[in-house]
Structure formats: structure tokens, C-alpha cells
Task: structure prediction
Amino acid sequence: MSEVVLSARGVGVRIDRATLLDGVDLDVRTGEVLVVVGPNGAGKSTLLGVLAGDVVPSSGHVAWRGRPLASIGVAELARHRAVLLQESRLSFPFRVVDVVRMGRAPWRGTPREEHDDEVVARAHVTADVLHLAARRYPSLSGGEKARASFARVLAQEPRLLLLDEPTAALDVRHQEHVLAQARDRARAGDAVVVVLHDLSLAAAWADRVVVLDGGGSPGTEHPTTCSPTPS
Result:
């Protein structure tokens, strides 16, 4: 049975005189892929930042399993959720294997640390970057960087995946592959939120779709009428 792991109520974000989000209500549930769509400037990435705890809302609140998101420490929060940004930049020329291993940082000093090597190896295979493991991150193409960053997110082993335009830099085959992996995580009982601009992909892979327009408003959440594409 699905469970609400993250809930947002009356969320608004304002910077100076600009309203980026206004009165957004949203529930994120285990076992499903929730896709956020909307035109440029609608507040999709801002909403994802709020759900991740990286953007503090100007109004409203967000809760993780009933706990205020703002009350959860950074290390604990990193064990609950992982975030894939539209673009990941690194200041140093790390190898791909080191980038993926960064996803294990939240588990340092816990019993799950002993599984780091196994988890990192599996993430390489799942994200199709095993053949890139020894490459330096800056030498990769945009699509290869996106897949390496996705592997890092998988290595983090979160219960909630927040993916911002994860298919933007990918070819068609890898777009399908990434979304299939998101679907698999949901089937395994995790919760997945994906920001997409491609409505056909949203219709094919989403269990529910949230439509944002002009910052959103109460009642912006709509179920999809399409069945997810099987992986």
C-alpha cells in the first residue's frame, strides 16, 4: 500500500517582488512516479528545491513523514532523499567512479557503509556508466555526465528520488533507460518525483502528473489517464 512520505501545504516562494510558487499543495507517495510539468518559468525546479529541503518556502510548509522538513538535519535528510539537478558541476577532475562513490557519503559511519563497494558497482551498471568508471568527469559528454550523476543518486540509496529534467541531455535510448530505472525504484517501494518538459514522456511513465503554470495554485495536481510504459 502506498504511503505519503512527503507533503507540501500552501507552499509559496517569493524573491523580491517575483512570485515563483503560490499556494501549492502536494503529496508524494511511495510506489509511484510523480511527474511535474509546466512551461518555462512555472516554478518546477523551485518546487523540486522546496521538496528537497534546499529552498526554504516563504509561506506554507513541507513535512517528511509528518516531521517538518526544516527540522531534519542535513546528514539525516541525505539518507532519506537524493537530488539530481539539471546540471552538475565539479571543481576538480574526479573520475566517474569517485563521483558515483560520493553518493555513499551520507552512510559513512553507519552499518550500511560496509556495502559501499557493492552499491557503487551496482549503480555503475544500472546507470550504464561502468565503461566510463576510469574517465575524468570533465572529459565526458553532456549525456555521459547526466548518467554519471544519476549513478551517484542511485548509490545514495534514498527512499525518495527527486530528478530535475533527467532526460534533457540524453539520447532516446538512455531517456527510456533512466525513466525505466525510476519506475523500477517506485515498484521497489520508493517515491520518485521527476520534472519533465516532454509531455509524451510524462504520459508514458507517470502515475500522476502535477501541472504548474505561473507558480501553481491549489488543485494543480491531476492523475494521468495513461498507463506507465513497462520497463
In short: Residues 126 and 184 are 11 Å apart (CA to CA). The radius of gyration is 17 Å. Residues 217-231 have pLDDT under 50 and may be disordered. The chain has seven helices and ten strands.
